[in-house]
Amino acid sequence: MNTGKQPHFRLQPRIRRRTPLLDVAMAVIIGGVSGVYIFNDTLRKVGLPPSQDNTESAAPVPPVSNDE
What we know:
Blueprint: H1 19-46
């Protein structure tokens, strides 16, 4: 029997919370979205098209006339 032994009490929950993992996942997602936004904004300021999927960048460029 358990005579003379202290009862075993746990102050921590038995199931570990995954809050730190969720925090890291949210930080990665938010960082990725903001990074893409900053990257596209920088390309727009420089004058390069942000992506090839954009319909505006897929429009044909009018030919330049060489009048001399």
